[in-house]
Description:
Elements: E1 7-16, E2 19-24, E3 27-35, E4 48-55, E5 61-64, E6 75-83, E7 87-91, E8 98-101, E9 114-121, E10 127-130, E11 149-158, E12 162-167, E13 171-176, E14 189-197, E15 203-206, H1 211-228, E16 232-233, H2 241-248, H3 252-264, E17 268-270, E18 275-277
Parallel strand pairs: 13-15
Antiparallel strand pairs: 1-2, 1-4, 2-3, 4-5, 6-7, 6-9, 7-8, 9-10, 11-12, 11-14, 12-13, 14-15, 16-18, 17-18
Amino acid sequence: MIRLGESQILTVVKRVEFGVYLADSSRPETKVLLPIKQVPEGTGIGDEVSVFVYKDSKDRIISTTQEPKLKMGELAALTVVSVQKIGAFLDWGLEKDLFLPFKEQVGKIQVGDEILVRLYIDKSKRLCASMKDLYELLRMDSPHQKGDMVRGRVYEFGNDFGTFVAVDDKYSAMIPRHEDHSFLRIGDCIEARVTDVKPDGKLDLTLREKAYMQMDKDAQQILQVLEEYDGVLPFNDKASPEVIMREMKMSKNAFKRAVGRLYKEHKVEITDKNIRKV
């Protein structure tokens, strides 16, 4: 059986001026064209050829000896080459760019972005890309341990959970929602530290440095914001986590640690309603 979106070994059953026709030995009546420029030199009737099967610009099933960057059941980071009203087109290493429908996008994308996608067959039996349901294809057998620095790609934002990241473009990971992710975009590549490895193998990540180093940065950020507020923050360390995240871009715990340091260093004073620079 000839399988769309997959690499397979097929047998040459007919030669024509513009190429050869290939078929699966179990279903010789179903044939697919391999264009003449793709036919390996010396190939004859009965020879086996490894090909990838997809559809050409006229929606005809066709095969190629080229290796695509993405196959059925896989994930790959592909570059956006065009953005239209109905969707985008991605470079996947073949002559015809891969279509990413608008309804299969999970965030705004633009030309030049490198985004993580999977392959699927739509209702019209065409191969398309999707940014959705990537989670199911990500692996949970990462070799990374707590404390490791890793590289990952942002592939989705989950408001109730956090920022979903594919470490090494293949392992399941997440930045918890209490960390500021407002500056991140879908497709961004980040460097992060593993804070936990869950029993099922999923990774928890942080963009923040180790606590003692991060506290210095947070304290400096608070002093900078105090300057912008003329030396008085209109809230204290008892404010809601939402207010602190919105105004300070840090979690409530990180804010309290940094404010505590500034207080011990006599750089701020804390009142019932605000924080003042000394």
